């Protein structure tokens, strides 16, 4: 699955599990458990044996010598198993930030996470300048309830500095029993450090949320891409139309702070809004890592005008959807630049319930753009801002005057305060980016006249 950092009990981002041995089968269930251990080697004629590079004997001797020296001289006894597992982790940690060795516990957590339930704090983390950085908090989790935001730096965990730690080391410190409390020291926007104490919990992530913002205008938020997210978005579109009573005038698709997820789910979501053309393709060093996904003619969205919200916490599978809709001119992207994770990780099971999470390919948008380390640039930049309302001044309208004439067409009077008397709180009232997206959809409705 695609994601911006290592998944753990408290850091969720589902990698795109690309089934290498079944590259032509995009309909295959993209779960980590389905990924084969390796691809079949090509048959090589006996008359032309494949030339293999010689083993680096000097380096192997050095490795054995280092291992012997550690066993003989380290201050505490270290067994061979520990040394070898650490060596494997070291091999992968120096490839790229997203390749990793998964022990039995990590592998089990990765498999469980595709169902949308795991234990932890509910944050996706990465490494930046030797600090642990919050890529995105997950909705309705201890992290969001504690006010943790994308971009926060975790400088201490229970009072222990994180600078210089690997992501694995930091995540292991943050693990623990459900219900136990943990204190994170955060730095936000270069300000002063502050502590946040929160309790670990079983995280049950709701992948898709949908509601009508107001008559004619729908809202779908995807918090992450799970195995059933595509199906859930299809159901959400049908429910929004039913609740509205007719075809929608506009829809906001919110991918902000979505750390990624299952590749097939991202393809299915994009396909709900597209009727033809390429959605995404991947390219890697081995032939079976090259996949292409195309849209089918069905249109669950009914061609409704679309605004897609993204920000710096929109990563991986989120960027696949945003890039496809942008390249196909299907919707207007609004917000700020996305995270920029354009690589594909394949989960390769090993013996003894272990696995490799290995970067095997880069993905590209329909127009051939690589998002890696660049991200998606929105069509309309709208930065986050707080909405403050000025106190309404006491004014009078014609309808407030005693003895005023009635409306010539029989319409009801609208005295001062009538428009807001029964107004209920709406998501867009305190979300500047969402309110701007809704305003754009209303403008399109007015100018297009449909």
TrEMBL record:
Renumbered residue ranges of the record's region Disordered: 391-430
CDD domains assigned to the protein according to its UniProt record, in alphabetical order: cpPDZ_CPP-like, Peptidase_S41_CPP
Signal peptide range: 1-23
Residues annotated as domain PDZ: 107-175
Keywords: Hydrolase, Protease, Serine protease, Signal
A UniProt-annotated Pfam family: PDZ_6
Database matches in InterPro entries: ClpP/crotonase-like_dom_sf, CtpA/B_N, PDZ, PDZ_6, PDZ_sf, Peptidase_S41A, Tail-specific_protease
Gene3D superfamilies registered for this protein in UniProt: 2-enoyl-CoA Hydratase, Chain A, domain 1, 2.30.42.10, 3.30.750.44
Keyword Protease recorded: yes
UniProt feature, compositional bias: Basic and acidic residues: 391-401
PANTHER family referenced in this protein's UniProt entry, alphabetically: CARBOXY-TERMINAL PROCESSING PROTEASE CTPA (PTHR32060:SF30), TAIL-SPECIFIC PROTEASE (PTHR32060)
Family: Belongs to the peptidase S41A family.
Protein name per the record: S41 family peptidase
Originating species: Pseudomonas quercus
